[in-house]
Amino acid sequence: MKKFVRSLWSIPSLVSILAVLFVILHPKELLAGGMSSFSESSPYGNRLYYDGSPGAPVTFNFSEKSKAGETASMKAAETAFSDFYFYKGFIVAETDTSYTIINEKNPEVLFFDNKASYDSYLDTHNLRPAVWTRWYNKNYDEANFKSIGFAAIFYFPISLFLIIIAIYSAISIRKTKNPLVKVLKKIYLITFIAISGVIFLLQAFPQSF
User: What is the average pLDDT score of the chain?
Assistant: First the structure.
């Protein structure tokens, strides 16, 4: 029994277990075309898709739950862009030669053949972020820190170790008598919570502002 437990938690076995766990938790990424691809929800629950092929565009489709009519859905099926951002319920998307604006709140897809009319629409409807324009592209999942989640699963022992240290520090900090150790625990806790919180917020709210 002891030999079995040891072999189960050997490095090769652990990697295999984590690989299986990854496939179970992230089937869409693998079915969509591998780790370079993505199939992600927009802030309003619609679908952004990239098949992972070199040079392939990012595409958009309204979800079944959206109020999109037939015309908007048909136009959405024609979308193809390389760079985009979310702002005020809109997806503002571009390629080198074309421009697309998608209204997610009131389903509508607008195509622009020239930059002048596109820029005019952005200005008229105040669709230029004032503080931070969070541009995304085919690496959307990485830019939105999804890769950190993948790493946390794949390197589960390290992730678990960091979490255990945080829990231990939180529980023991009041009883710690050594001033230096107490300060170190506080610094670790604050850093752990701050980084985790910022990553969570940036993932939960990918919009520009």
Answer: 84
